[in-house]
Model the fold of this input.
Amino acid sequence: MKVEIEESKLQTAYANACDGVKDFMESLFGKKVFEAAKPTLDDYKTIRTYEDACKALGEPIFEDPNNLPNHIIALMKLETISRALWGRNFQPKPDGEGSKVYWYPWFALWTKKEVEDMNPEQRGALLSAYAIHGALAGFGCLHAYFRSSFAYASFGFRLCQETEEKAKYFGQQFIELWAEYLKFNFTVGNRLK
Done:
């Protein structure tokens, strides 16, 4: 009988295993297979879990002594993961001129078929919500109305990434945490493989 295992799945299992199981896996597959599995700030794809992010950043894993709501804990974990995904060399800085683009994981709550089946009024409401609250990000979540200018930031910068590829990875790899943070009666898909 021949069994095939994807390397990424094997490395994820290794990253989540206890020491005894890790020793067993190393003896079975060799240590070299798992060297790439160690979380590092030099390769964002080695950050596969919240614990990986803490390990790469050299930070302790968050323990909740105050019984915070689950969505707050999820947000705190996402912020830690985001910093780890930024990596060692990326230093996010405010850009008052708006010349730098940052990427935020974007989630669709409707399938393509559901959007196509909407009547024009429903689809118009969906599109206007996107146009108003589209891909805008800032260092806080600010709205300024009825002043000399009109400006707002729809969501916090700390969850943005410097590339579209990283933002997509962030959204897909950590979909369960995002669902906990954004929770609203929907089901969660699969992680990247």
Observations:
- The beta strands are 143-144, 151-152.
